[in-house]
Amino acid sequence: MLRESLTQSNTRRQLKREEYTIGWICALSIELAAAKQMLDEVHQSLRSNAADSNTYELGRIGEHNVVIACLPIGQMGTNAAASVATQMQLTFNSVRLGLMVGIGGGVPSTADVRLGDVIVSQPFKDHGGVVQYDFGKTTPDKFERTGFLNSPPQVFLKAIPSLKANSLRERVGFSHSLWKLAQDPIFARDKTGPDDLYDATYNHEGGPDDCQKCRKEYVVRRQPRSEDFVVHYGTIASGNQVMRDATIRDRLSVELGGVLCFEMEAAGLMNSFPCLVVRGICDYADSHKNKSWQPYAAGTAAAFAKEILSVLQPTEVAETLTVVEAIKAVNDLNTVLKILPTAEEAPFNAYRSQDAPTCLPD
Question: Scanning 91, 110, 234, 354, which has the fewest C-beta atoms within 10 Å of its C-beta?
């Protein structure tokens, strides 16, 4: 068996760095394991760059060559994600599109979000798909969030309608991806446990691994759903702390115009690594958080990421700026904008209100 394994390994193709156009980033080892399951072909590794501390998995998904990187064990948050992305784009400077794929905490007060569902970043109201909820300034009266994160690349936004038009369950490729994941007991749906949503005012009782001691009278009654999971599109809240409070979760969601998910990496990427964020819901961002749903949720997110790549044509990707070129274009634009005069006390992104009746002409 060892000799056969070595023979198979030696037959793997080895491509050049410039042949990889899709960058896939994940934060946890279980997310990396799910991502590797999505590869249609595994490629030989390339000689590492001494200045790059990332470890890469290389392969092909459909017609696209993909480079996958994971955050170092024990590191999380926006800064760690930004560091991994920066090193990836320097080593693989032909990468044109990015994916941030993994797990997150759902917000059931915004939509009928359930464990195992998939959340996809998409511009909604005043946000480009991702908002950093813990970045801003504190004033005597309140906390003011500042800055604006870029939207996902247009090529992804143009692909989403075709996925919405056709049910994912009707797509053979998506069904096959889920079937392939289910062959590994780690990712099986029946290993997850119950999907119990507790009232937002009721805090967890007992140990950190399960809710056996939590009182079932506080479980929210919901209509049964025939689907194992649903895909939702909208705003993802990102920050450098784990959200484990249901009342704060719901309050922030209302303040931000309706958030579907909380996570900890995407805000570090959107302005420096143009990407689509895909999150599988593994908990409800409350005190009842545990890890039992993480593998399945990581799997559904990875399967969706593979599916959206399947509808992208290589020609579309080739016509997209590389990540390095896109960031340079944004920086050049910002340099010009800084030279232009601005009105005192003008609010950030005031152009969004340019058609309001209180605005002066021009």
Answer: 354
